[in-house]
Write a structure and sequence with these properties.
The chain folds into two domains: 30 residues; 230 residues, no CATH class. It has ten helices and no strands. It is elongated and about 90 Å long.
């Protein structure tokens, strides 16, 4: 589980509910089912109009991806690539075929198989980057989806507010109900802002982080595979791959893979 997501969600809910409870009317004045249906149901219906069902069906999977941490181990990946480079220089590229079955990273496995098969370097580079670009495109679809949905929340909150104001103005003769009517009209704006700023926009931000992390890992794998095929010195390969990371992380990774500059 991603602790920052869980802690942020729980803390946010607590602080918002606690702040609402400090008002004179308690939490009950903030509860209105029709307003909630207007904001959540209306905004989601709008997204259904603008999105194919295949994209909508991915929402559950995407939310799970936000809640759970990714299992990428950059240290392990760089260590494997450096070890493959050493073996290829000692025994030849064909010797790497013995290592393929043990590989858990399917992207790396595919690239190493291309190398073992003697595929042209430019072809390997094109195929691997095409796969990376398609991955980014799929990620981008859901990032854009949640970004668009986050803009719909406040919009439907305002629609609900306008509906409430119209109903209130149509009944101006009952002056006693004006205050409660105005409060009810504004609740949808509150719901829309919460939906956008507490749920949907943070999910979009988290998906962007996940995409950047996965892209970095695949770029490291591609660089490593191309360097192995070209016969680079393992120490050169290690330095090249570590250059993708922040300086603060490099020494720890060097220690993990048991090497030094």
């Amino acid at each position: 589980m991603d602790l920052s997501t869980i802690i942020g969600f729980v803390a946010g809910i607590f602080l918002v509910v606690w702040s609402m409870a400090q008002g004179g009317g308690g939490l009950v004045i903030f509860a209105d089912l029709p307003s909630l249906a207007m904001v959540i149901g209306g905004s989601f219906a709008a997204m259904m109009i603008g999105s194919p069902l295949s994209r909508l069906s991915k929402i559950g999977t995407v939310v799970k991806k936000v809640i759970n941490t990714q299992s990428f181990s950059v240290e392990k990946i760089i260590g494997v690539l450096v070890r493959f480079s050493e073996k290829a220089r000692r025994e030849g590229l064909l010797a790497l075929e013995d290592e393929l079955e043990a590989l858990e990273n399917e992207f790396m496995k595919k690239g190493i198989q291309f190398v073992v098969d003697g595929t042209d370097p430019e072809v390997i580079k094109t195929m691997l980057y095409t796969e990376l670009n398609q991955l980014q495109s799929r990620h981008g679809e859901m990032i854009t989806f949640f970004g668009n949905w986050s803009s719909m929340g406040p919009a439907y909150g305002m629609i609900g507010t306008l509906v409430g104001l119209i109903a209130m103005l149509a009944n101006l003769s009952d002056s006693a109900s004006l205050g409660s009517g105005m409060a009810l009209a504004l609740i949808t704006t509150l719901y829309g802002s919460l939906l956008s700023n507490f749920f949907l926009t943070p999910i979009k931000f988290k998906l962007e982080d996940r995409d950047a992390e996965e892209t970095l890992v695949l770029e490291i794998v591609i660089e490593g595979i191309l360097s192995i095929q070209s016969g680079d010195n393992p120490r050169i390969l290690e330095s090249k791959l570590l250059s993708y990371l922040a300086p603060s992380k490099r020494e720890g990774i060097r220690a993990e893979i048991g090497s030094s500059e």
